[in-house]
Description:
The protein is an all-alpha fold. 74% of the residues lie in helices and 0% in strands.
Amino acid sequence: xxxHLSILFSTGFYVGYVPFASGTFGTLVGLLLFAIVNLVxxxxxxxxxxxxxxxxxxxxxxxxxxxxNSDPPQVIIDEILGVWIALILFETSFKNLxxxxxxxxxxxxxxxxxxxLIDKKLKGEIGVLLDDIAAGLMAKGAIWLLFHIK
Length: 150
């Protein structure tokens, strides 16, 4: 049962099994999750994010073992959390969701510093999760700059 729940959570309720672009689909799941969670107060959003992050550590570890890959494409909880961190503190608007998606996917795929460094240096579940968190933080900065620099 524990293994089944770990795979369920780490694959974004099996969305990670989509045979192509699983990271993109994971990001879309993250956008949907953000839109739902963004309906509650920011304090609760932050608590929910950290609870999900803490659950993601052992569930990603279990998925790595199951799939026999250090960064299995089926695991999309990292994209879900990455885009969520990119958008938290922003309102749910089409422009924020759009740019959050674009910037997060860009930084997740291209892996500029420090995302690439984290991806190379940190192995296992922590590395899988933290490079996407870093990409999400970079996306957050890019969104802020896009709308606040005149």
